[in-house]
Specification:
The protein has 402 residues and is mostly helical. The protein has a single domain, classed as Growth Hormone, Chain: A (Up-down Bundle). Helices cover 83% and strands 0% of the residues. Helix 1 crosses helix 6, helix 3 packs parallel to helix 5 and helix 11 packs antiparallel against helix 12. It is globular.
Length: 402
């Protein structure tokens, strides 16, 4: 139970209001992805520069999580959440009103910064009002709600780009952000009853506790590595599918929609299996299975390097893996440090987005002509995931059991 004297009905209303905001974060990459080739053409930017709108967004998102994670334990949750939504609305409008590639890069970074504030404030509020057991289970629900963004984002973005131009996606963001701002203002109260003063020694103590916790670091790294599986497709997919295979933005949106549905299926299967099996057992099994599939895919891709069905199928399996592993890792990590929830979620998502943004930036340097580099990237990420799990997460679990 929470210590805020909230009724069960009020707690549920706050929870669902916050969950409804999460798809905005999932859409921030996927809704823009179908428009990347058109942005490159209209704004006269190279494909690698335009792809960096994704990595810059992720860098901003990680910093937004980190900075607001510190501030939310000092100043509370509600003000930062409202400020993040207002900032998101303004920078989204700026990207649409000022069509310039340099301005676009800056606004994408600022979009990430503001949504990072939204994300960490949301998770901190949920940590305030829910007990540890419900929080672990909610991690899967958060993953599913986030997955709605990749499901509906590409199809919305594809149609907006096809009929109204690439700017329409940013107008859409400002509209959705405005609705979220109104809902939070009316429904969500301040939930932080134990603020901490902004003192360097306290911050150092909190972060020392976090970064020396091997299981926490391992779970955060797993989130980043598996989220990268999706970001890699969103970074390289539009140019591979639209430019190399000559599909339209709407057709790419349809493919991305199918992959987003697969991601949500992964979260649903994970949620169901959590009622029957231990989370640690499920995480170990999932890491092993998806690594084996990636190894198999590399052996086949040289025969099917230009087969869109094969590339989509393997990408779908990787999306399913993300839907399964990402929420498991997030829920487990969030439950470890509820006494410093803001700092913990800030550190968790800084690690997560640092790994993801580096992956996206490196892939933007690769010229995609076939599916071979994409499949090899999947194998690399799943292999590193397995190593991280064995060295950090599984070893820590075994020490606790002893």
């Amino acid at each position: 139970m929470n210590n805020l004297n909230l009724s069960q009905r009020k707690t549920q209303l706050i929870t669902w209001t916050l969950l409804a905001l999460i798809p905005i974060i999932g859409m921030a990459v996927d809704l823009i992805a179908p428009a990347l080739p058109d942005i490159s053409h209209v704004l006269h930017g190279s494909s690698s520069i335009v792809q960096n709108t994704i990595s810059l967004y992720l860098i901003g998102y990680g910093l937004g999580n980190f900075i607001s994670g510190i501030l939310t334990d000092v100043f509370g949750r509600r003000k930062l959440l409202l400020l993040g939504l207002l900032g998101f609305i303004l920078v989204s409008l700026s990207a649409a009103i000022i069509p310039n590639v340099e301005i676009l890069l800056v606004t994408r970074f600022l979009q990430g910064l503001t949504l990072g504030t939204l994300a960490v404030s949301t998770r901190a509020i949920l940590s305030d009002i829910l007990d540890a057991q419900k929080l672990v289970a909610l991690g899967v629900m958060i993953g599913m709600m986030w997955g709605i963004g990749p499901v509906i984002g590409p199809i919305i973005g594809g149609y907006l780009e096809e009929y109204f131009g690439w700017e329409a996606g940013f107008y859409f963001f400002s509209l959705v952000g405005s609705l979220g701002l109104i809902a939070v203002f009316l429904i969500v109260p301040e939930t932080c009853i134990n603020t901490h003063p902004l003192k360097i020694n306290i911050l150092k103590q909190n972060f020392r506790e976090l970064i020396t916790h091997h299981q926490f670091i391992g779970l955060s790294a797993l989130m980043g590595l598996n989220y990268s599986l999706m970001i890699i497709f969103n970074t390289a997919g539009p140019f591979l599918i639209q430019n190399r295979f000559h599909y339209s933005a709407v057709q790419f949106g349809d493919i991305a929609l199918a992959l987003g549905i697969v991601y949500v299926m992964g979260t649903l299967v994970c949620r169901y299996l959590l009622t029957k099996y231990d989370a640690k057992q499920l995480l170990f099994t999932a890491v092993c299975i998806f690594l084996a599939i990636a190894i198999f895919a590399v052996g086949i891709v040289y025969f099917l390097s230009n087969n869109i069905l094969f590339i989509t199928l393997i990408s779908g399996i990787m999306f399913f893996a993300t839907g399964f592993i990402f929420p498991l890792s997030m829920g487990s990590g969030m439950s470890l440090f509820r006494h410093i929830a803001g700092s913990a979620t800030a550190t968790m998502y800084l690690i997560n987005t640092a790994i993801t943004s580096i992956s996206a930036a490196l892939l933007s340097l690769v010229h995609m002509q076939t599916g071979i580099p994409l499949i090899w990237t999947y194998l690399f990420l799943t292999s590193i995931s397995a190593l991280v799990y064995l060295i950090l997460v599984r070893k820590a679990n075994q020490q606790v059991q002893r």
